[in-house]
Amino acid sequence: MNIGMIGASGLMGRGIASNLLAKGYALSIVAHRQRETIDALKSQGATEVPSIQDLCFCDLVFLCVTGTPEVRACVLGEAGLLALGRSGLYVVDLSTCEPESTLELRHLCEA
108 or 23: which carries more pLDDT confidence? Predict the structure, then answer.
């Protein structure tokens, strides 16, 4: 299973990413200016990709970003996950978001 992660440079994202790598999963992480964290995950086996669109080959993408506006940008943005037009992609939002927005995004992703 190919797994992607947006937000791997944060405290929660780094821990989740590190655990996935320790379990042997192939993990692609989106580039971030927080180089120390990204480089540490790369040294554990993560592959860094330059943009969200480069996660198009993943089976599953974890979102671990700050909140609702960031999640909406990652999913609905011009270069977001829905723009990939890929069916069968699972998106798991681990962010602290407004429940109504999460439900709306769920329905948009299912369509």
Answer: 23
User: Domain limits of the chain?
Assistant: 2-110
45's torsion region: left (phi>0), alpha (psi -120 to 50) or beta? left
* Residue in this structure with the two tokens 């330059």, named with its chain if needed: 50
For residue 22, what are its two tokens?
């320790």
Mean pLDDT of the chain: 94
* CATH architecture observed for domain 2-110: 3-Layer(aba) Sandwich (3.40)
Say if CB 47 and CB 27 are below 8 A apart.
yes
> Percentage helix, strand, coil, to 5, in the chain?
45, 20, 35
Report d(CA 50, CA 53) in Å as an integer.
8
